[in-house]
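Quick start: what a row looks like.
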Amino acid sequence: MFKFLCSAVLVLYGIGAHAQFVVSGRVSSDKEPLPGATVRLLENKSTTVTDASGRFSLPPVSAGTYTLQVSFIGFETLEKRVEVSESTDLNMTLKQTSIIGDEVVVRATRATDKTPTTFTNISKEAITKQNFGQDMPFLLNWIPSVTTTSDAGTGIGYTGIRIRGSDATRINVTINGVPYNDAESMNTFWVDIPDIASSTENVQIQRGVGTSTNGAAAFGATINLLTNAKSQNPYAELTNGFGSFGTRRHTFSFGTGQLNNHWNIEGRLSRIESDGFIDRATADLRSYYFAATYSSKKTTLKAMTFGGKERTYQAWYGVPESRLRNDTEAMLTTAANEGWNEEQTQNLLNSGSRTFNPYFYKNQVDDYQQDHYQLHLTQQLSEALTLNSSLHYTPGKGFYEEYRFDQDLEDYGLSPITIGDSVISSTDLIRRRWLDNDFYGITWAVNYDKNKWNVVFGGGWNRYDGDHFGEIVWAEVSPVPHLYRYYFNNGDKRDFNSYVKINRAIGDQFNAYVDLQYRQIDYQVQGLENEQYELDLNTSFQFFNPKAGITWAPTSEQQFYASYAVANREPVRSDFVDNPGSAPKYETLRNLEIGSRRTTGNYTFNLNYYYMHYDNQLVLTGALNDVGAPVRTNVDNSYRMGIEGELMWKLSNKWQWMINATWSRNKIRNFTEVLYDYGPDFDDFITVERNYRNTDISFSPEWIAGSTISFFPVSGAEISLLSKYVGDQYLDNTSNERRTLDAFFVQDVRFNYSLKPSFMREMVFSVLVNNLLDEQYESNGYTWGYLAGAFEARENYYYPQAGRNFMIMLTLKI
């Protein structure tokens, strides 16, 4: 593989001795920059999006004549012929129009250059380059303050993302302005919509509280995803990829282009399969996307459906530290602490040190299907007034299937069974834990934009109705009823929010911003829980979330901003279920953001300071519940503080460097660790509390850095070295050095080469080598322990990531 890449570089450099030039510039309207405008070079299909200062830069091209197309919602599309004989920097001015485009769907929930908050825009071109079939978190891995992890070790299947140390349950995710976080857990299961990146137009990540949006409150960041914009021309694309660990990716997409000046139809079918790095951590992921759009001068109606069916072998238990260290005596202790039988113990002793999976029952799987239906209406009411309204419905149904050894019958609501002279109180069994839910609602936004005023009034109402139940599908003791339902409960959650955002220009350099949101949540859970106790929860929350700030742009190249935001957030389902009899408190976050953005013809530099102070923050204890979800507890007083820097530098016509770094402090003023002491004879237990001051919040590294160095040897070719550094992290909140994730530094190499043969629009050959230097590292983990008199047991578990591995893809476009 290394020889191949080196040879490819030399060959391309040899045939590309002719000069390469960069087309860059600034897009504006009446001297105001337009961030988020789409810039395309029609001849080679290169596409990018303008940054916060309206700047853009396209990949290098050979000398010649090109057509540059610039488009932005609410403005006429501009096409300009450009003679390229040297690197060119252009000023492009767009004229306002009433034509409606796709971006208006997410306009109300996105930040612009006039919004005093910290954000990053990611274009379709950047997403496509990195899309080798991994889940969306791994495509976002290179932006500031982001860390990612994968249960299977490959980025395919169950993956996770943290931003500023906050996990996925604290990151608001919307797709076309519609909430995607699970309403009860607030988690984001990207595995349920595999290959959604292939149907994504662009993504905006707002760090911190961000602007008001729909769905769960943002306590770390917001990920705002816009699906494909309608294509003006018909197309068909086929992508096939193959790689390490039996990974296979097949994607077919098409579009009709504009039909009868009004209609547009697009679709996609995908299948991604992988054996996984972890033993038996297979994934079989199938997904689809279809959209039909009717558009006229003042109206757009877009109906779409997307979703997927996933079947993944469970790999969420992790690898014990004893197995990672190949310590036989410690492994026997682990098996004893876990209560494993001889078969399970032998699996531990005989597995690979980094690929161990405690599950070996062939159907120990997660099997789930989720379908999304969205209908978006955009109406231009007047020159200054635009209405957007969206209806959505998401049904989902699936189960975890598990083989369980030596289960007490009373834990399943069953009495001991008498067979002959024997009384049987436990048995091996296979159970399925089901989730059958419906999520539906409406979102709306009215946008007024005239003179120096931009006002958005929006909101949404959503309802979640979910059944949780468990069935025994087989038991070693035959009298156990087949498909016996041992628990059932229903969760009903209703979420209403309404917001107003006001942006007012003050003179030529200043913009004042005010954002006020009201949110009401009603949540009920009734029925029998898995642990055989009754759930009877009926709770409501009402929150007021104000935000305000100012932006100062002394020149067209320089911008400063400052904002202060307050957000409140309700506990999630597991916070109630995992702590019966102890109601968790809601959280409050106060977020200060101060930053600057500077853009010139050769570089863009962003620098910001943030301070996020939490009251009653729900933090991870380091332990997991019985389905692999992290357990959390309230802490009275905690904070996150940091500095984020981001540089995008055009070194020359052939070289480009993007680098970012985050330094942060993440502290809990007072933390109480609770352990169970079972006594030396394990005949009873008491709780023991240990108090700590100024400890580090778990999974919050002090340093995070990312780098992408790109080389463009010839037109259509790009070779990039992608590097990621993540500092030490603690598994819990005690700052105990024996409960840590070690720092890691990983490099990937990405190669893309685009050809334009006469018989098709484009042919793209791509290679991704992950973990080039074969670094052995773990990106996630958890810890648990107990006391037995003077003896303390402690088990640390880790999620090792794959060593050097690769993926090769070929994309054909007609």
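That is the whole record. The mean pLDDT is 91. Helices lie at 2-15, 104-107, 124-130, 136-139, 321-324, 328-338, 342-350, 573-577.
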